[in-house]
C-alpha cells in the first residue's frame, strides 16, 4: 500500500477521534504494521501534522492539520460546490433553496438561491437558526450519534422557540428524528416562519458524517406536498456529497 495512502488514513483516523490515541491503537484500527505507523507518525510530527504526548504515550493532530482546516474555511469549497447544484435545484423546484451547516446546536446558512418571484426568506447567508426547528438541522441531527444529540440538547432550555411549534423536549426531538431516518429526509411546517415549510436532506461525507444539508422552502398552502420536493432535493444532496468526495449518498426512502 502506498505510503501516501497510509499517511492519509492515519490523519483521517486521528481526525475522527475525541482525543489523542496510542500508536498501537492506530495500527490495530487501520490494520497496519506497528513499525510502519511509528515511521509515518514521526514524519508527520516533523511537519507538525501530528503531535506526540510523551507522558500519555499518545498521538494527536498538530498545528499543521489545524492550518489545513483554516485553509478549507477560507477557500469556501463547500459553498462554491453547492451554488451550482442549488441553482439547478431552484430551476427544477420553482422554489428557493439553501445550504446550511451545523454550528453548535444551530444551523448556519452558507448559500441561498432565491427563486424568481418568491418571497424573501430568513435563511440569508450568515443567518443562524435553531437546528431542531429547521429541515436542514433535523436532516443533520438525524445523522448524528444519539449521544451527540443529547449533548446538544441537555434540557428544556436548549429548545428555542419561534412560532410556538416544534419539539420542546429531547424525547419529542428523538421521535421526530426517528421519522427523518426512516424517510431519508426532514421537513418542517411553520416552525421557522408561519405559512412556509421546508424539506431538507443531509449531505454526507465519506464516513457518513453530515457535513451539510440542502433544503427547499415553499408555501404550505400550495398544491405540492413535502414528498414532492423531497424527490428533487435527495439527488441534489447526493450529488454534492459526491463532489466533496463522499463515498455514499444520504439514505433515501423515496
From TrEMBL:
<feature type="domain" description="HTH iclR-type">
    <location>
        <begin position="1"/>
        <end position="63"/>
    </location>
</feature>
<dbReference type="InterPro" id="IPR036388">
    <property type="entry name" value="WH-like_DNA-bd_sf"/>
</dbReference>
<keyword id="KW-0238">DNA-binding</keyword>
<dbReference type="InterPro" id="IPR005471">
    <property type="entry name" value="Tscrpt_reg_IclR_N"/>
</dbReference>
<dbReference type="Pfam" id="PF09339">
    <property type="entry name" value="HTH_IclR"/>
</dbReference>
<dbReference type="GO" id="GO:0045892">
    <property type="term" value="P:negative regulation of DNA-templated transcription"/>
</dbReference>
<protein>
    <submittedName>
        <fullName>Acetate operon repressor</fullName>
    </submittedName>
</protein>
<dbReference type="Pfam" id="PF01614">
    <property type="entry name" value="IclR_C"/>
</dbReference>
<dbReference type="GO" id="GO:0003677">
    <property type="term" value="F:DNA binding"/>
</dbReference>
<dbReference type="InterPro" id="IPR014757">
    <property type="entry name" value="Tscrpt_reg_IclR_C"/>
</dbReference>
<keyword id="KW-0804">Transcription</keyword>
<keyword id="KW-0805">Transcription regulation</keyword>
<dbReference type="InterPro" id="IPR029016">
    <property type="entry name" value="GAF-like_dom_sf"/>
</dbReference>
<dbReference type="InterPro" id="IPR050707">
    <property type="entry name" value="HTH_MetabolicPath_Reg"/>
</dbReference>
<feature type="domain" description="IclR-ED">
    <location>
        <begin position="64"/>
        <end position="246"/>
    </location>
</feature>
<dbReference type="GO" id="GO:0003700">
    <property type="term" value="F:DNA-binding transcription factor activity"/>
</dbReference>
<dbReference type="InterPro" id="IPR036390">
    <property type="entry name" value="WH_DNA-bd_sf"/>
</dbReference>
Amino acid at each position: 500500500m502506498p505510503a501516501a495512502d497510509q499517511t492519509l488514513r492515519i490523519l483521517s483516523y486521528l481526525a475522527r477521534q475525541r482525543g489523542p490515541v496510542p500508536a498501537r491503537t492506530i495500527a490495530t484500527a487501520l490494520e497496519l504494521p506497528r513499525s510502519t505507523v511509528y515511521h509515518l507518525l514521526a514524519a508527520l510530527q516533523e511537519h507538525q501534522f501530528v503531535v506526540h504526548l510523551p507522558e500519555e504515550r499518545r498521538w494527536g493532530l498538530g498545528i499543521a492539520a489545524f492550518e489545513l482546516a483554516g485553509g478549507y474555511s477560507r477557500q469556501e469549497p463547500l459553498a462554491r460546490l453547492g451554488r451550482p447544484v442549488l441553482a439547478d435545484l431552484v430551476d427544477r423546484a420553482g422554489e428557493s433553496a439553501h445550504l446550511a451547516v451545523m454550528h453548535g446546536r444551530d444551523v448556519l446558512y452558507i448559500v441561498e438561491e432565491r427563486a424568481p418571484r418568491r418571497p424573501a426568506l430568513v435563511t440569508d447567508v450568515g443567518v443562524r437558526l435553531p437546528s431542531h426547528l429547521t429541515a436542514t438541522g433535523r436532516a443533520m441531527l438525524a445523522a448524528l450519534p444519539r449521544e451527540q444529540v443529547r449533548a446538544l440538547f441537555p434540557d428544556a432550555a436548549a429548545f428555542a422557540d419561534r412560532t410556538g411549534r416544534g419539539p420542546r423536549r429531547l424525547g419529542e426531538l428523538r421521535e421526530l428524528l426517528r421519522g427523518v431516518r426512516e424517510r431519508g429526509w426532514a421537513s418542517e411546517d411553520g416552525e421557522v416562519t408561519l405559512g412556509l415549510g421546508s424539506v431538507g436532506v443531509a449531505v454526507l461525507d465519506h464516513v457518513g458524517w453530515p457535513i451539510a444539508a440542502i433544503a427547499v422552502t415553499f408555501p404550505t398552502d400550495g398544491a405540492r406536498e413535502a414528498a414532492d420536493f423531497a424527490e428533487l432535493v435527495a439527488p441534489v444532496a447526493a450529488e454534492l456529497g459526491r463532489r466533496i468526495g463522499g463515498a455514499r449518498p444520504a439514505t433515501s426512502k423515496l
